[in-house]
Structures are given as structure tokens and as C-alpha cells.
Design goal:
The chain is mostly helical and 200 residues long. The chain contains 10 helices and no strands. The longest helix has 33 residues, at 2-34. The radius of gyration is 21 Å and the shape is elongated.
């Protein structure tokens, strides 16, 4: 009985160490993304994780597999930024709350999402991770502005427009294409979303 228990502890310990190593490799890739290295090599990832390159390949078949795992981790982290917004608030307050929430999320998640965007054309699973995130964002917008969408002459188009306007690609364009700081970018986004809801 005692021997069996010791064996179980040994197996559990190995599994825990393996999971920690796997997470360390994923976190190393994400840290390199944060530093602007959007295509890190296995040696750089291994060095950052404090493991050998061989260990990286023991846990992941290739860099795409590692990117996919990092994408799952990104989804976990991004979901932590999403808090319920009262749908009974005045529309201006709902818009403001959503913009604030999305801005915080987008600023935190921009580096790994930039990396994922580079790899997405070559990976169906990375695209599936992206689509899952978009589905969650769409559901939040649909719930938050259900009354305004239902009252619109073209509810489907309004929903599509709101999803795009409040999505990361729009935020990235505001921040990097026209070089807005965070506060002006939030102001522009609030104006855009407000105008769509009022005019529709």
C-alpha cells in the first residue's frame, strides 16, 4: 500500500513538473512576443524558459504547435479582462464601459496577437483560436446592446459593424496606423460606436 502510494506520488510529481515546464515554454514565447520578437526561434525560447532546445521539442512537435498552445493561454488571459457590464445602464455608460474594458485587454494582448496574426495564414488552428475569440466578443456585444440592435432597421448589419468597431483590429489601427495614444483612441472609439447606434 505504501509502495503504491509512493509510486503514485512519483507519477504525480513527474506530471506536475512536465506541466510546469510546458507552461514555462509557453510563457517564454509570450514574453518574447511582449518584447517585440514576433517570430522567436526555438533556441531563444529555450534560453528564456531556462530549458534545452531538446526539452522544447519534447513538449511540442513544432513551433506552430507551441503557437497554438500559446493561443489557448492568450484566450485564458484575455477572458480575465472581461467583466459583466449591466445591460440596463444608459447606452452611453455601456459604450464607455465596453471601450474601457476592451482598451485594457487590447493593450495587454497586443504583442501575442500580433504574433498570432503573422502565423494565422499558415495555421488552421491559430485561425480557429482567433475565431473563438471573435465569437466571444460578438456574444458580449450582442448581449450588451440587445435593445439597440433589435430596434435597428438592419440589426444584422449593426451587430456586424459594432463587432468590427470594438474589435482588436480596429484598436490596432488606431494605435499603430494613425499613432493615437490610448486616451485619444478610446475617445475615437466611443464616438464611432455612439454614432452607429444613434444613426441605426
Amino acid at each position: 500500500m505504501q509502495a503504491g502510494s509512493a509510486q503514485e506520488w512519483s507519477v504525480d510529481g513527474r506530471a506536475a513538473r512536465s506541466a510546469r515546464t510546458r507552461r514555462a515554454i509557453v510563457d517564454a514565447m509570450r514574453a518574447l512576443h511582449d518584447e517585440g520578437d514576433l517570430r522567436p526561434t526555438a533556441p531563444r525560447i529555450a534560453e528564456r524558459a531556462g530549458v534545452s532546445v531538446r526539452t522544447v521539442w519534447q513538449h511540442f512537435d513544432d513551433l506552430e504547435t507551441l503557437m497554438v498552445e500559446a493561443g489557448h493561454r492568450d484566450l485564458e488571459i484575455a477572458s480575465g479582462f472581461v467583466e459583466p457590464i449591466d445591460p440596463d445602464l444608459p447606452v452611453a455608460e455601456r459604450i464607455g464601459a465596453l471601450v474601457e474594458q476592451r482598451a485594457v485587454m487590447f493593450e495587454a494582448m497586443a504583442p501575442p496577437w500580433r504574433a498570432a496574426r503573422l502565423h494565422a495564414p499558415f495555421s488552421a488552428q491559430i485561425r480557429a483560436n482567433r475565431d473563438r475569440m471573435m465569437d466571444l466578443a460578438r456574444a458580449q456585444v450582442c448581449e450588451l446592446f440587445a435593445g439597440e440592435i433589435a430596434a435597428s432597421d438592419d440589426p444584422d448589419t449593426l451587430l456586424d459593424a459594432l463587432v468590427v468597431a470594438t474589435g482588436w483590429a480596429t484598436w490596432e489601427s488606431l494605435r499603430t496606423d494613425i499613432h493615437l495614444d490610448v486616451e485619444p483612441a478610446k475617445k475615437a472609439l466611443r464616438l464611432w460606436v455612439s454614432s452607429m447606434i444613434v444613426t441605426c
